[in-house]
Write a structure and sequence with these properties.
Elements (H helix, E strand, L loop, with lengths): L1 H14 L3 E10 L7 E10 L3 E6 L4 E6 L2 E6 L2 E6 L4 H14 L10 E6 L2 E6 L11 E7 L4 E8 L5 E6 L1
Amino acid sequence: MKKLILTLTFVICNLTLSIAQSVTRTQHRTAIAEDAVTTGTMTVRKPDYICISTDNGKEQLIMDGTKFTMVTGRKQHTTDSRKNAQFATFHEVLKAVIGGQPVPAKDDITVTTKGSLQTVTITPAGKKRKMFTSFVMTVDTKGNKLKTLRMNERAGNYTEYMFK
């Protein structure tokens, strides 16, 4: 059943009539000397559907409304931004970026601007154990395009997506 769901998710991500761009995914693990680098596509369907698929669909990050699904290898993690405050803020920021709106002002969001590039850092408050310690996005404000997305984890590990 999981293979069927993953296959359908992959097909939906790649056959959607929408905006698509190429992406390079870098996964850094401090315990491993060399970073894992894969390529793929990002599909955006407004107002709030994003699918980042790399390594022929083996690695996926999907935002479908308030539902977030992350597929890494054979593992699938799912959360809903209505129940997960960390992803609620992430969802708000992504919707604003995709829709060409200003990034919302919140305590856990820091925005810095240099020229036409805007760096948005989301650092969730609280000491509760979280999947990611922060999200960092770089946005080209001229074209309202997401340039990079970095999801920082504990112990210096991170996954970074670079969009072309």
